[in-house]
Amino acid sequence: MILNITPNQLKTLTFFFVFALFSLSQETQAQTRVYANAATISNASHVDNPANAYDGNLATFANVKTNSGLLGLGAYNGYIELQFPSTLPANTTSYVKIQTEDDLLNALLGGSLGGLLADVLGLVLTGSQEFTVQARNGSTIIVQGDSQDGGEFATDQLTIVTDPNGDYFIRVTPTAAYDRIRIINRSGVSLLGLGIEKDMFVYDAYYVEDPANCGTAAFTSYSGSGLTLDLINLGGAGVENPEFAIDSDEGTFSTLSMGVVGVGSSIEQTVYFEGESVSSDEFTMQIRLTQTLLDANVANSISVQSYNGATLVQDVSLSTLLTLNLLSLNGGEITSIPLTPGAPIDRITLTFESVVGLSVSQNLDFFGVVRTAARPEITDPDTLDAQGCEGSTIDLIADTDVSNELRWYDAEEDGNLLATVASGDPFTTPTLTTDVTYYVAAARIGCPEESLRIAVDVTVNSVATPTGDAAQSFCSYGSATVGDLVVNEPNVVFYDADTAGNQYLDTDALTDGTIYYAAIQDAITGCESATRFAITVTLDDLCDVTLNVKVLLQGALYGTGTAVMRDDLRTQGLIPVNQPYDNSMDARFTHVGGGSETTTNTIINTNAGTSDAIVDWVFIEIRDTPTNVFKTVSALLQRDGDVIASDGGPLVVSGLPETFYISVKHRNHFGAMGLNALTVLNSEVTIDFTTIADADLYSLSGFTGSNAMVTVNSVKALYTGNANYDDHVKYDGTANDRQVLASQVLTHESNTNQVLNFSSATGYFSGDVNMDGKVIYDGANNERVIIQNIILTYPLNTNGLSNYNGMIEQIPQ
Q1: Angle at CA of residue 70, ends 69 and 73, nearest 5°
Q2: d(CA 68, CA 62)
Q3: 679 — phi, psi (to 5°)?
Q4: Which tens digit of pLDDT belongs to each residue from 624-669?
């Protein structure tokens, strides 16, 4: 077998830049940082909160001030000098987090381009706010940089860098020993005599004593040569969003640009690591170029430099890297390019040189650099030519440095982590069923970053085993057969044993708890799988059932003269998208398993203008006995009485027994329930309350089915008038429904005069018993009269009393 390291694999790098890991990395690095622990200041009035600059907290700061003085009086420059606990050896890098009042740091971040960038930003490096940075050993100045000379911050000893958050740091690497850093905030000559004060925030200074093994680049900066103000300002040359090359988002990038004028120039971006790598570390750089630039052979104009301090460790062109790694660039695609410096480094620079005479936009997208352990090596002969048998496992062996671990996956990127082993230890594959490729990456122990993965192909010479769900459930009262078992492949037969045994017919009934063994049977040869796929069958007593329910509301039938309800609530946009029922209305609406049903206005209005338009929500109870509610569900009611699910489809309810009772309730109507238990047939039950016989309606003791529903327009409907949600409709007496109408009218926000004959109390109210979208107590079409008429015409109110108290919902509570 040939070891597969394909170009596509080399283009793949999984970034672990999720915020949790980034935070963990920062915490790990914070444990290795040594902060300055003392400070000297110019004057107490010049520096606010100096202790914040040596508290080891990069979120707090001291304010170092400068004042240009007024007419020659009161001028001063402030400074703070941060001292480390001990003297740092030569070439030790330390960092100082700062922020200036003027946008100087944004310009100085561009290194040798600082002066040009200042012009683009409308700044001046000389004359306004200025600052000086000095690395000192006692009173001796080791290295100094002045902001008005941008070039002094474009050296190996002094650089302005930014972190992923866009915060600015001074990166200091003196060539001699030092023990402190002084930052001086100064007023430039253009401010003298104007009495202007400028602030500089100094957060903390630190160096890395014991570099963390994990983590990605911590800082970045950029620079360039041969660029002019016109190229930067007009041609778009420079670096855009430099911090995106080190942020924790793999979808963002910086852009290095030479603009559209093909003159001799270059732009470069550097990423910095906190501390040195080890010699065996591998780095992966991700870039993207347009096809136009690739056609112009721009790869010869791109190079990568690796440094350790001021020492150049490696300088290699992109063309060479592509050749070494069998890579090719494709326009518009992200390419991952491995770098192997072969020695410790602490920073990497990507340099992009302009192609002279090329009059197209010369841009390069830079996604960043990740440091990982070197890719594993595979020398074991049995792994290089891996062979296995169906149903068996084999051992695969790879090697890496003893300080690393090996992570085996089932995919070239992402996928599932199958095992983590030490160098040289075997990875035992899962049971083999077909030819398969496994992938191995090396990682430093305890670190999330991994090397690129190496592919290992395994050949399996066998008949495939069926796949599917090893546990399958069916309805115990659904007459399921062997033919209902599901696998992913065709031409499958089933047996009662994992080997040999008896073959089932497709028409054989499934039994609960039985294991069925599937094998693929080749249609031509008749061969079957050597290994059968086991499926354990469970027959559930509670199943998914489609409820075909039909019911009409008396209130929505008023004035129609037909058996099709009005949908006034829908046309006025009053139907809520969330189901409206809960036990705070009344215990009659206590949810059992339901209550979270929602719909959308699109669903509510889908069938506008037809008999399928939505009228309102209804409350469905499934009862395993007439007195026990087993499950509830809120559903939508159409004008013709059909009840549908809140998603607009059939009303399918899960977890139901084979027989049960159904009741339907509405918020201001009585509910009704069938007298007889319904039996599921073909996963459905049907009950039509619009045509149900009185004898088939449930009634309480002392009542009959004729008292449960009202007949309107030759069809049965639920009684309206139940404005207070309880199990009575009452016109007079305690807890009567008429009072609810009066209250909702009087308290309506538009009824400013609180009069009972107010006729514009619109809304989704229980007092709206005729469901026309408003509550009316007095006047035309008022609900008070409707409730009174319902009471007076109720069959058992033989004396025609308005204070009749015997109209009761015929459902057990």
Answers
A1: 65
A2: 20
A3: -115, 130
A4: 999 999 999 999 999 999 999 999 999 999 999 999 999 999 999 9
